[in-house]
Structures are given as structure tokens and as C-alpha cells.
Amino acid sequence: MEHSATPPPCFLKLIISLAAILLTACGGGGGSPNINVEGPPLSDIDPNSIQLSDMHLNLQDGSRERASIFCTPSGFCRATVLGDTFEFQINEADSSRGSGTIYNTLGDWNDTVAVAVYGRIDGESSRYASAVGIVHPNSLPRRGSATWRGDMVGLDANNRVVRGGAELTIPDLSNPFVDVTLTPRARPAMQWENLSVANGRFSQDRRIDDYIKGEIYGQSAKEAGGVFERNGIVGAFGAER
Questions:
Q1: In this structure, what DSSP letter does residue 61 have?
Q2: How far is CA 201 from CA 148, 177, 179, 183, in A?
Q3: Residue 179: how many other CB atoms lie within 10 Å
Q4: Quick one: which of 4, 17, 25, 42 has the most CB atoms within 10 Å?
Q5: Cα–Cα nearest to 164, from 74, 233, 86
Q6: For residue 4, what pLDDT is reported?
Q7: pLDDT digits over 180-195, tens only?
Q8: What is the rounded distance in angstroms from the CA atom of residue 117 to the CA atom of residue 154?
């Protein structure tokens, strides 16, 4: 597919606006009257780690695209769209132009926020998920086992919210490999097994539409969260030990 180095203006504005929706709402910077939150109030935390799923974009011309997007806690973002990479600073964006809904997980944690986001701007829309949190390096115990339990939230291909449970288990903390089980209501369970944990992070990327990225958060590794895509669901999860 041919593409130019410069995306359509609304295309890039949509990415910037939706990134601003997330980090403005979750990072303690206020909010926008055009943003609804479904679920408990978002925790007001200042994260030092941000994990984002791919972003599914529906454009005015009826086409659909994906954007891989990464943002640092300072608000610097890099988006890859149609093979091209674009960089921007979200604190320079006007997030009030965007509207949408943040579907929050049902749990309430001190160091983690996990959300699925549906947003709109200028006739275009998107869905994606994010887990943001406070990482305490080397906080994972080195003996015994650990289990985190919580919940997941996501959006399916029709932008319908999907909720369910989440469980993460490390059977042997001296040699940490994690098993993750997500149980969306009225849908098949999703399992990832034996994922290596390094510096508190774990991931598996089978295909563009089948992956998981997670991290251990909080003091004494009390919390865990991440983002995933499988079975047409783009979502996030959070859990507590």
C-alpha cells in the first residue's frame, strides 16, 4: 500500500487528541467535559510507566487503519501509521477537541490505572487500551510464589465494552515466569502461559492482533497491569496481590 510521509490532518489530530484524553484523565492533569468515564473514578496518579495497545482507527473515508503508539510519562509520543513514524508532544495538543468514553476497570488500586478508550474527533473514531502505573524497581520478591487477582476491560470490534476477571500467577519467584488468565463475561477465556518476567515486565507478541504487554507496579510488587489484544478484543487489566 502506498502512503505519504504526512498523514491526513484529522488522522494525526485524532491520535494526538486520544493520547491527550488518556494522559490528561489518568495523570492528574484535569479533564475535559467531552470525556465520559464508565466505572469507578480514575485514580489520580503520576505514572512513571505507560503501556498502550495498538490503536484501531476508523476514518471519514470509510477506511480502517492501525497505529502503534508509545508515550513516555512526560507526554512525548511516537506513533507509527502505515509504516511511517510521527512524533508529537501531547501537552501541546488541544484535548478538548476530542470526545469519547474511558471504560475503567472495576478495581481500585493505588499504583495502577487500566482502561479501554473509545474516542471521536472530526468524524473519525478510535479504540485502544492503556495501563499506566508507578513502578518500584526490584520490588518483586525473590522467594515463594505470587498471585494477583483483579479485572479486565476492553472493546470488541463493534466498540462494545467487555468486562471480566483477571488473574496472574508466578509459581516460583526465584525463577519468575508468569501465567495470565483473562475471563471476559460470556466469552472464551484467554490464557498466556510461562511468560518470562524481566525487570518487572512481561510480554508476548504472536501476531498483530494477538499480544500481551504487562508490568508489576507498586511497592512490594502489590499490583500488576497490562494491555492485550485477542479474539477481536482490545483491552487492559489490573490486579492486586
A1: T
A2: 14, 10, 13, 21
A3: 15
A4: 17
A5: 233
A6: 43
A7: 999 999 999 999 999 9
A8: 8
Give the global pTM. Answer: 0.89
Q: Average pLDDT over the chain, rounded to whole?
A: 86
**Mean per-residue pLDDT, 214-226:** 95
Which one, of 131, 125, 3, lies nearest residue 55 by Cα?
125
Q: What is the pLDDT of residues 52-64, one digit of tens each?
A: 999 998 888 888 8
Beta bridge partners of 68: 80
Alpha-carbon span 183 to 36, nearest angstrom: 25
Q: Residue 23 burial by CB count (10 A; 0-12/13-18/19+): exposed, middle or buried?
A: buried
pLDDT of residue 93: 58
CB 229 within 8 A of CB 219: no
Using a 10 angstrom Cβ sphere, with 0-12 exposed, 13-18 middle and 19 or more buried, the burial of residue 105 is: buried
End-to-end CA distance of the chain: 46
Q: How far is CA 167 from CA 14, 111, 148, 193, 214, in A?
A: 33, 17, 6, 12, 12
Contact 215, 131 (CB under 8 A): yes
pLDDT (mean) for 190-209: 93
Are residues 213 and 224 in contact, defined by beta-carbon separation less than 8 angstroms? no
Whole-number Å distance between alpha carbons of 90 and 146: 37
